[in-house]
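Translate sequence into C-alpha cells.
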Amino acid sequence: MYQGWLIYSEQDAIYNQSYIKWFIDEAKKQNIALQLILREELTIGVSGNKNSTLLKGKKTILPNFAIIRTVEPLLNLHLESLGMPIFNSSYISEVANHKARTYFEVAKLGIPMVNTAFFNRNNLTSHVPMPFPFVIKEAAGRGGKQVYFIENEHDWDVFISNASPTDYVVQSTDVQLGKDLRVFIVGKEIIGAVLRESSSDFRANFKLGGSAKLYRLSLAEKEMVGKIINHFDFGMVGIDFLIGHQNELLFNEIEDVVGSRTLSAVSDINILEKYVTHIKTRLLS
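Result follows.
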C-alpha cells in the first residue's frame, strides 16, 4: 500500500474538513493510505549539511509521495530533493503562484490574453501604466483577493500610497467584467469547465458570491487549453480565462492549489477519484 502525505495549513484544514475526508476516502479506495499533515507540524531545513524534514520535531519515515495544499514552492522543492514525487511539483507551484511568471510562460504559447504589465512596488510611480479602467493584482494573490479596480487617477494615487512592498501585474479590463471560466485539469485531461458570473463584483469568484454553471468547451477552446496542458506537467490545477466582448477566451491564470466546490456544485464529476488515479499511475510508472 502506498503511503502519502496530504499537507494543509492548520487554518485551511479546519475550513476544508469535508474535502480532506473525501480525499482520504478516495485514496483508500485505490489502496493508498493518505495522512493529513499540518504544515505547522513540519520543520524543513538543513541538518548535518543535508536537507532535513522533521515531523512534530522528530525524524520520521517519509511517505511515497506528498500532495501539497499550501502555497509554498520551497516546501515542494525541499521534499522533491529528498526523492519524493510531489503533486503539484515545485515548478508548477512556483510559476502558478506568481502571476507575472505565469503570463511570461503562457505568452510563449501564443495564447490570447489581455494587455499586462509587470511591476514591483519600487517602480510604481504616479505615472499611470495604461488607460483607465484597469486592475492591479498582487502577483502572489489568490482567490480574487489582493485585486484592485482602478477607475481614475484618484484611485491610482490612493493605491500607490498604500501599496505593499511586493510584485504586481497591471491588466486591461477590456473584457466582460464579472465573468470568467475555470477549466479543471488532472494531468493531461480536461475534467470539466465552469462558467462563473457575478452581477455585483468585477470578480466572478464563487467564494465572493458569484454564480456558476457547467460549460461545454468548443473544439477550438479545447485545443487552446491543450496547448497549455502540453506545456506543463500538471497534477491537478484550474486554468482560468476571462471572457472577451466577442465571448472569446482570454487566459487569466493557473490555480495551483485548486478547490473544486464549483465543479461539485454544478456536476457529479468526481475529480478527486480522477486525481488519485493520476497519482497512482505516476507512482507506478
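Note: DSSP finds nine helices and 16 strands in the chain.
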